[in-house]
């Protein structure tokens, strides 16, 4: 039986490594968001700075490990075997929960997840013990550190509101003073801002760095015999003032003589500081439990007492964590930061919600987001009516965003926000976390950094009429996910603990196997989605400013659309012929995906037209019409895919042999034409389009004949209304598909060969 605990220890060590990977993937958004979003420094430099911050923070985090041992439950109330079961349940739950949120691309709190997993498992074990002893339910409070749990819940609620409010206020004041022309302000203005920001971040580094080491507990005569930690916590005003004076002077000298952009320096130092805080604070969330298990195992082995009789009061004592383990954990975190694609996806969610530019919105509006936006609009209108016009104009002038020449900066390469907002994000997050640390308040770095970023976005007018309902819905979704994390972590950890407690080794083996299977499945699913996003058949936005440029640029798009059209249409017919509901389901999704991609291109029209020079405005008509025809093609395919899947999914009668045969004849002829057209566009041999257009009438005639045949068939032999409806729907939508395709080809053919008199082209039917 003793071997099972050693095997559990090995399993916990492996889970710790995996938890480090999924944890960093989730929390990278905390310290990368501002630097990546502002593009103030290169991505490589950001990663190097963050890596040093993580490595330093990991080495300073030894003192935080106490949370896993005694922060949530009273260890003296449990025996060794019970503690090991609690730790195993916590780690299995944690890795699955964090990986789930990473796969969704949603930032969540590793602090809250580990705390509520410990709480859930401890409560479940307490109830099992109470039940075995025929005790009272109220006895559970003897096992749990109630004050700490209440503090953490209070910290969650407080951090969300305070971080958002303070972030919004500081950003509004900063923008009011600096405007968007901050680089044109006098040197002393930038120096004062740099002094304020850098002094805040420096104090934050001292609190989270030196304050977390054993060195901080030593007293020195030179500072009055008090410890470094006491100095940082009691002499806040003096330290901050001295810091401010020093950094303001340094900022002035750097800007005046070295011509250094102080905002870039703030962002670099702030990124290091938050990375240090993340590793120092949150490393306990990933390895605190396995280290506590290892220390428990050592104490139990030395005792010689049975596992079910050895009390774990030893965990209440302060035990330092070996520096080597902290170093190894830090290196794993750094490697994950560089290579995790899920980390990039979580960062993207935060950037999209705070972007100053229009982005493809991930979240759909809901009644709550609409209500909040309406309330905000009403409040804004009220404030506007009572604010003097002259003052309102001055304020608006400070918030006027400079027009960026899109011909020099492609839309998708623009920063999500400017350096002032990035600096405020880092500065405010650092200040709030420092204050919470000095008062020993439990705080989630994820909650603080995310809500500060959302508050600064609101104050900076990044949430305009075009995007507010989507952004607010996104923020509400993320916040809902945070509270969902706490509830799910508590329940899931309790359930897993119960299974382990009753099933012992067999239950642990099954749960570990299940965890591996789920992680593998999520990894494969994530890679598959990533490959789809990188697929060569995906559509690219036009950036050219002339008709010929658009023709050349969009040729690959057209080729890709026609290739996918061919595949989707053929799969619809084959799926109906074979009654293959799985093929039709996948095919329907492919049709929806193509339609969404084309919608994304249409959303880019505003920027495309803005990019045009005065002599090339005609390119806009060409591009808009081309997108209209592509939209028609996608909608026809989407409809064909939908009705085909619905027919088979509802188990309606199979189409008759002659109907399938006729559809296949159309499919083969359409495939031949689409292949020719795809080749012409892929090779940019636009003169070949004329050969395809010559076959237009033959294809229309074929479809019309099939319609007439089905009319006759319906009057004489057809007995299924569902089959008749489906068949006519397919033929009519196929006719629309052919019309849209030929109109598109005609437009390209006419523009490419100016000697041909433009034919009358039907306008797109589904704008």
Instruction: Characterize the largest beta sheet: strand count, sense, and whether it forms a barrel.
Output: none
What gap, in angstroms, lies between the N and C termini? 71 Å
The assigned structural class equals mainly alpha
Order of helices and strands: HHHHHHHHHHHHHHHHHHHHHHHHHH
Number of helices: 26
Return residue spans where pLDDT drops below 50 for at least 5 consecutive residues.
406-412, 753-767
Report the mean per-residue pLDDT as an integer: 79
Helix content: over 70%
Query: Assembly type of the shown chains?
Result: single chain
Count the domains: 2
Number of strands: 0
* Overall spatial form: globular
Computed over alpha carbons, the radius of gyration is: 32 Å
Strand composition percent:
under 5%
Please describe the structure with a list of short key phrases separated by commas or semicolons.
mainly alpha; Methane Monooxygenase Hydroxylase, Chain G, domain 1; globular; phosphate transmembrane transporter activity; transport; phosphate transport
Describe this structure in words.
By secondary structure, the chain is mostly helical. The chain has two domains: 1-400 and 420-529, no CATH class; 547-751, Methane Monooxygenase Hydroxylase, Chain G, domain 1 (Up-down Bundle). It is 75% helix and 0% strand. It contains 26 helices and no strands. Helix 1 crosses helix 13 (341-354).
Topology of this protein?
Blueprint: H1 2-38, H2 43-59, H3 66-71, H4 80-104, H5 110-132, H6 140-143, H7 146-178, H8 187-208, H9 228-234, H10 236-256, H11 262-303, H12 323-339, H13 341-354, H14 367-386, H15 389-398, H16 419-438, H17 445-459, H18 468-534, H19 547-578, H20 581-603, H21 605-610, H22 618-649, H23 657-682, H24 689-693, H25 696-716, H26 721-752
Helix pairs in contact: 1-2, 1-4, 1-11, 1-12, 1-13, 1-16, 1-17, 2-11, 2-12, 4-5, 4-11, 4-18, 5-18, 7-16, 7-17, 8-10, 8-11, 8-16, 11-16, 13-18, 14-18, 16-17, 19-20, 19-22, 19-23, 20-22, 22-26, 23-25, 23-26, 25-26
InterPro entries: Phos_transporter (IPR001204)
Pfam families: PHO4
Family: Belongs to the inorganic phosphate transporter (PiT) (TC 2.A.20) family.
């Amino acid at each position: 039986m003793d071997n099972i605990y050693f095997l559990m220890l090995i399993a916990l060590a492996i889970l710790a490594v995996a938890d480090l990977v999924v944890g960093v993937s989730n929390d990278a958004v905390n310290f990368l968001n501002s630097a990546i979003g502002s593009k103030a420094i290169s991505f490589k430099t950001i990663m190097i700075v963050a890596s040093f911050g993580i490595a330093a923070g990991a080495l300073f985090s030894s003192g935080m490990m106490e949370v896993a041992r005694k922060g949530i439950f009273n260890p003296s109330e449990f025996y060794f075997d019970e503690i090991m079961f609690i730790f195993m349940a916590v780690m299995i739950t944690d890795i699955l929960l964090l990986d789930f949120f990473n796969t969704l691309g949603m930032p969540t709190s590793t602090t809250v997840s580990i705390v509520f997993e410990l709480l859930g498992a401890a409560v479940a074990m307490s109830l099992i013990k109470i039940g075995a002893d025929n005790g009272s339910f109220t006895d559970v409070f003897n096992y749990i550190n109630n004050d700490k749990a209440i503090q953490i819940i209070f910290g969650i609620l407080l951090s969300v509101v305070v971080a958002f409010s303070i972030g919004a206020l500081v950003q509004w004041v900063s923008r009011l003073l600096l405007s968007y022309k901050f680089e044109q302000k006098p040197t002393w203005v930038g120096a004062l801002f740099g002094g304020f920001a850098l002094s805040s971040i420096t104090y934050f580094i001292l609190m989270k760095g030196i304050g977390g080491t054993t060195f901080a507990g030593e007293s020195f005569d030179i500072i009055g015999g008090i410890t470094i930690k006491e100095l940082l916590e009691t002499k806040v005003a003096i330290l901050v003032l001295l810091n401010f004076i020093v950094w303001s002077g340094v900022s002035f000298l750097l800007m005046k003589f070295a011509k250094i952009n102080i905002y870039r320096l703030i962002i670099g130092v702030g990124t290091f500081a938050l990375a240090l805080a993340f590793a120092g604070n949150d490393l306990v969330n990933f390895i605190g439990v396995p280290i506590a298990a290892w220390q428990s195992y050592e104490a139990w082995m030395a005792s010689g007492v049975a596992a079910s009789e050895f009390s774990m009061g030893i965990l209440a004592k302060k035990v330092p964590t070996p520096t080597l383990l902290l170093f190894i954990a830090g290196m794993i975190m750094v490697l994950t930061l560089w290579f995790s694609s899920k980390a990039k996806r979580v960062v993207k969610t935060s950037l999209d919600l705070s972007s100053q530019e229009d982005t493809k919105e991930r979240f759909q509006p809901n009644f709550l987001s609409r209500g909040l936006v309406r309330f905000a609009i009403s409040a804004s209108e009220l404030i506007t009516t009572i604010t003097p016009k002259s003052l309102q104009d001055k304020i608006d002038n400070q918030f006027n965003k400079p027009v960026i020449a899109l011909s020099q900066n492609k839309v998708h390469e623009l920063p999500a926000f400017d350096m002032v907002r990035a600096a405020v994000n880092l500065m405010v997050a650092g200040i709030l976390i420092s204050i919470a640390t000095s008062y020993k308040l439990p705080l989630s770095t994820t909650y603080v950094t995310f809500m500060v970023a959302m508050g600064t976005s609101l104050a900076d007018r990044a949430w305009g009429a075009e995007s507010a309902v989507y952004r607010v819905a996104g923020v509400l979704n993320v916040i809902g996910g945070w509270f969902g994390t706490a509830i799910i972590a508590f329940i899931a950890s309790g359930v897993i603990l119960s299974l382990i407690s009753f099933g012992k080794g067999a239950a642990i083996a099954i749960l570990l196997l299940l965890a591996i299977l789920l992680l593998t499945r999520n990894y494969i699913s994530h890679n598959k989605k990533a490959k789809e996003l990188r697929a060569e058949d995906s559509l690219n936005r036009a950036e050219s400013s002339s008709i010929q440029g658009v023709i050349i640029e969009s040729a690959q798009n057209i080729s890709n659309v026609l290739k996918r059209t061919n595949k989707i249409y053929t799969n619809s017919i084959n799926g109906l012929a074979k009654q293959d509901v799985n093929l039709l389901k996948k095919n329907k999704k492919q049709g929806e995906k193509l339609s969404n991609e084309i919608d994304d291109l249409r959303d880019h029209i505003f920027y495309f037209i803005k990019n045009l020079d005065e002599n090339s405005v005609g390119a806009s008509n060409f591009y808009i019409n081309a997108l209209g025809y592509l939209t028609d093609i996608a909608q026809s395919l989407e409809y064909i895919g939908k009705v085909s899947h619905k027919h088979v999914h509802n188990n309606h009668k199979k189409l008759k042999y002659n109907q399938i045969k006729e559809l296949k004849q159309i499919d083969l002829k359409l495939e031949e034409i689409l292949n020719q057209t795809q080749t012409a566009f892929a090779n940019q041999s636009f003169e070949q389009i004329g050969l395809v257009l010559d076959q237009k009438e033959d294809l229309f005639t074929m479809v019309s004949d099939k319609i007439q045949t089905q009319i006759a068939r319906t009057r004489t032999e057809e007995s299924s209304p569902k089959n008749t409806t489906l068949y006519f729907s397919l033929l009519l939508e196929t006719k629309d598909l052919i019309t849209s395709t030929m109109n598109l080809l005609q437009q390209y053919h006419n523009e490419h060969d100016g000697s041909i008199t433009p034919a009358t082209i039907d306008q797109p039917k589904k704008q």
